[in-house]
Amino acid sequence: MKKIRNLGCLLLLVFAFLLLTACGAKQTNQPADTQAESRDGQDIVTEGPRNDVADLPEDLNFGGKIFTIRSIVQNAAAREFEAALNGSVIDQAVYNKNRALEETYGCLILNNETVGNTNTDQMLQEISAMVSAGTYENQILVTAGYRMCSLAINGLLADIYTMDAIDVGKDYYSQGYNEALSIGESQYLITGKLSMSYYRYMLVMFYNRTLFSDFGVEDPQELVFAQEWTMEKAAEIAQQIYQDNGNPETNIYGYVGFVGGDSSQTDGFMSATDMRVLSKDETNYYRLDINQNRFSGAIDQILRLLYSEGSYVSTSIGNETVQNRFTAGTAGMMAFRLYVVENSDMVGLGNTGLGYGILPLPKQDTVQEDYISYVQDQCFLFGFPSSLTEEEKQSVGLFFEAFASDTYAVVKSVYYEKALTTRYLDEPSTRIMEIIDTNVYVDPINVYLSTAFSFTTGRLRQIYGDPAQYSIASILATYVTSGRLQQEVDDLNETFQSIANGTFEASE
Question: For the whole model, what pTM was predicted?
């Protein structure tokens, strides 16, 4: 296991390579990349090992071994791990990739999938029973991230660092999530660009190019490149696009949003404005590290966007209404998860007129150095049962590394590039997608959510939905000043320390 943290930017694969590897060709002993750098005004071409393919034995063959993926997913994320030849480009790519993996490595892939509600304890109950029985009929476990975390803190998952073949520093794993999930000298969960859910649940800002053109609003992409795309600037633009037709249902607004406790549309604002709660100490355990002044400033800027004259937000309109307003041309901007691009109305909008564009969520201010992306908690996390024998654990690690590498190629070529990037053929739009994809940060409190922490981005939803009743000062007082959050951090650290040293005892 190579423990690599805080790596730099994702190097995007070129189209030709992706199309060649999308069918799951064996990815060992790959040729070195040629990389150009400038020294004293001269372009120097150097070679280095690829970081986007698995380093596997040349003769790897599992001799017909069966690997079972146990997944519990929402309908929107179904058929990611197995699919039929039904005419869908994505389903066909998944099917072909799995069959190629089976042929290349001499194995059989089974997907034991439940499609429905992920907000249950079903995975926890199943794996608790399996581990207690000392069995491992399901070797790879995956569901919504916050539900997988309950398995980790109950000692039900193997330490990924002890699975020699898994290299967490590869490009197909998320370094932002690795930083949040690694704890001490261990890591029990992993995710990244090997999963379409990583992109589907990424929160971005959509803008209607036709409305921006009609109202003569400056190109927001140029604001992004100039590092001036901020919450304040987004609020100013919302006011420029506003048109009062005498009826809130037909008015044109610069920004439309679903807010409040039931909405996930605002969840990305915490990361986007760099409101951080937890960091790591010198031993890689969690510590409380919150800047209350920054929180207050960020909340003020976010509320300025949500409640400007040109914005229309409500706790009752719902995701579908926001999307319909946007595709109907009565909303200039909306914050939404990327999976909305798969909706037929969005596809239609993208194929007519100027269509729509995608932007990173705005920064808090121009002092903030980077745009920061957030992948919402429904993103899949992968884990492996702690009941695996040592031999089985190493075998599963080898398979998963091959699976992750080849699946990443499919996700990038079929979903990322065909469903997203190729809708924006101009060079600036491709650069925007790279900015969004490159810098993902997920605070650990938003990974574990209610499994460990009472203060999460969900608490901030209260402010966005009703700023007259809730304030960041009162919320921070309840969770931070009172010492409640510090105790939760201490408890989680102690739990993982006991799991690592073998003294953990599951609660009844």
Answer: 0.86
